[in-house]
């Protein structure tokens, strides 16, 4: 299959560009912490990069909980046949 026949989000060049853009946005977000004054409420939320790593950890936790719920709530394939 030709590269032009693929959807634009599946092409190797587009994936590479998207990774670079997302990493650039992440770097700008983290570096912007040097320019703003933070109003911490709990002490730990004043640490450098708190919102970045907290968001990453909560995202991973949500994925793991969703996987666990999928195993707990899953029904057998022949559920409707009975």
Using brief descriptors, characterize the structure shown.
single chain; 82 residues; mainly alpha; 2 domains; 0% strand; flat
Provide a brief overview of the structure.
The protein is mainly alpha-helical and 82 residues long.
How would you sum up this structure, described in words?
The protein starts with 11 loop residues before the first helix and ends in a 9-residue tail after the last helix. It has two helices and no strands. The mean pLDDT is 88. The protein has helices at 12-31, 50-73. The chain is 54% helix and 0% strand. With 82 residues, the protein is an all-alpha fold. It folds into two domains: 1-36; 48-74.
Radius of gyration: 21 Å
Spatial separation of the terminal alpha carbons? 44 Å
**What is the total domain count?**
2
Shape by Cα distribution: flat
User: How large a portion of the residues is in β-strands, by DSSP E?
Assistant: under 5%
- Record field, number of beta strands: 0
Please report the number of helical segments. 2
Structural class based on helices, strands and sheet pairing: mainly alpha
Largest pleated sheet: none
Q: What is the residue-averaged pLDDT?
A: 88
Report the uncertain regions. none
Order of helices and strands: HH
Q: What percent of the residues sit in helical stretches (DSSP H or I)?
A: 40-55%
